Each structure stands twice: as structure tokens, then as C-alpha cells.
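Researcher: Let's walk through a ligand-bound prediction step by step. First, I give you the protein sequence. Second, the SMILES string for zinc ion. Third, you return the three-dimensional complex as C-alpha cells. Ready?
Model: Ready.
Researcher: Here are steps one and two:
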Amino acid sequence: MKHSACPNCRKTDLEDFFTIPNAPTQSLVTIKNRVEALAIPRKDIVLTFCNSCGFIFNSEFDTTIDYYTQGYEDQQGFSPTFVKFISGVAQRFIDRYGIRNKQVVEIGCGKGDFVRLMSKLGNNTGIGIDPAYVPGRGEEVPNVTFIKEFYSSDHGDIEADCITCRHTMEHIHDTIGIMETVRESCRDKQPVLLFEVPSIVRILDVQAFWDIFYEHCSYFSPGSFARLFRQSGFEVLDMYLEYDNQYLFIEARPVATPSEKIHPLEESVEELKAKTKHFVEQINIQLGGWRERLLRFKAEGKKVVVWGGGSKSVGFLTHFADLDAIEHVCDINPHMQGNFIPGIGKQYVGPAFLETYHPDVVIVMNSVYLDEIRNDLAGRGLHPEMLGL
Ligand SMILES: [Zn+2]
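Model: Step three, the predicted complex:
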């Protein structure tokens, strides 16, 4: 079903600009055999630009699919690089707003790593809400409890001094709807919000096609994210980009009337639209370059592996599945190893497997991890050519 109104501002002046046909509809669901993995339904991703608010979204997104309750693997905490980064983010936020001995609520908490971290670092009580929460997948932290449900107005009575929401908004189609629900739950209280999403600006600037996949229906820029917050009754306190400009953070508070102050990071609707044009001009060159590189590796008989499972690997491999140039995808999350990749059909392997496989080329799905992975491989006596996205 084609969505005819912008989920961010509800206006209808929309323009499609990029299509990925037949993308697997799920990339993080856990699947135990190849046949089932290949049988994942496929649908088009149609990136659409809202000329009113600059929001980019998949206007063909199917809201009826059950994405999160049948096993969903997205834990990032197995990487020391990531743990160091996220601990820094949490500590800065706690110090900035004095979030100590308070109650922290996390919407879309996944396996609960961040709400536990907020609790530990600030001696806070924590409540994590997520349908994909799995008990026993993190250390027990006193004063942290979990609700295995989708966030809704039913949770409006939960008192919160701080509301966090990381890497969840990009999975939600009705973005203004959920922000209005959050705003309503604040009532006359003034919790501070910390929300984090991938930034579409970097995706457009470097044609990061691997960051476009079906489960991400919503693509925010600093401008469209800030406009959404203001429209739903929040004052934007700050915004910043982290992790090689991949992640966009916003800090906000509910107010009666948001000011019209524009954060320096916000781009205009016109500026973002120009970036979509540049993306469209460049994307086929980018895809063609990778195709050529992979075909060359294949012709040279090189063993190529992808390092980094999950959505990015599905987003990447979707474009090259026909080449049969990549045999394995490696991930350090032990809960992924042995699973089959939705839509791609290959089985995840752990790093130990590479000791016997001896890859010639390792394509790293996030160049932030290049050093960490190079060191890991060197420790196994492996020195393959490394390419980072
Ligand atoms: Zn809009």
C-alpha cells in the first residue's frame, strides 16, 4: 500500500526519488535454515521525499508485517569499540542533565544494554520497553525492569525523569504519532529526552546504500528530526552527530510552545533535497564500482568475506547476491553465529571460522570497526586485504 501522506508532518507534497526493488523485508529476524532464509518475502523500498518537512521515508512500507516478535538480533555490545562509544554518550548525558537517582524509561530498549548502562552510571532506576526484549541476555542490574511490549499510550502512566530511545524511530512508520504519544505521556512533567537515529545525510553524501534496508522505513536528517520534535511539542536542546557522522542524537524537553530556534546542525528542506539529487546522480556509479570490484575478486579466485552481520550486510549483499562472489558473513555476536541471513541464505560464521578459511579480502560493514577487526584478525595470524564501508 502506498502511503500518500508524510508520516512526519501529515502533508502530501511528496516525491519518490530512489527505489530498491525486491528487498528482503526482514534482516534481523533469526532463522535457522537456508530455505526459510531465502523464503523471506521481498518488497520494494521506495524512498520518498517530503517537500514540506524534508522527511525521507519508504512510501511502500508494509506496516502489517511482524518484524520484532519472532526472534530479532541486533545487540551491538559485543564490540569494545561500541561499548566505549556508548558509555561515553551515556556519561556525558548524565552529567549534562544531572540524571542521578532518577527514573529512566527507554522506548525500544532491545536487549536492554543502554537502560542498564544509564542505571549503573547514574544510580537510576530503569524501565525498558521492547517487544524484542529477551530476559537473561545481559547482566542483572538491580532497579532495572523490562516490559516486553510495543510502546503505546498504555505506558503513559509510567513516571519518567528521562526518556531515551535509540535506533527505534527509524523502524517506526507513524513518526508523528509516536512522538505525540510520548508528548502526552509527559503531561505537565519535564523529562529530558535523548533520541538517536541513523543520519540520512551521511547516507546521501557517501551513497551508503548498505544503510538502506526494509526494516528502516524512516530516514531522519537533523532538520527533519528537529522539525518533528518541535511539531509534537518539544524544545530541541541540542543535536550532534557521532560515530563517523552515522548516528544523529537529539536532546529535547516537552514545552507548552516550542520556540522557533534553529539548531546549527539543521539543514533546510531545500538543502536536503539537493542532497537527494546528488545521491541519485552518484548511486549507480557507487553500485557499479562495487560490482566491478567483487567480480574482479571472483575472477582472481579470491576468498571474500563480509564482516558485520545484521541489516548493513543484508543492505549490502542484496545488491550483489547474483554475483556469488562472497561466501561467508562473519559476526562477533555469538547469538548470530549459525543463523542464516534473511533473503541472502548464507550462514553467519564466527571469527574463529576464518582461521581455517583464510580469507583474502574482508569487507567491513562499518569502517568504525576497521582497527578492532584488523587487530582481531592479526591475532589469529590473518592479514587479508581490508575494505571498510
Ligand atoms: Zn513531511
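Researcher: And what stands out?
Model: The domain at 300-388 is CATH 3.40.50.720 (Rossmann fold). Residues 6, 8-9, 11, 50, 52-53, 55 surround zinc ion (CB under 6 Å).
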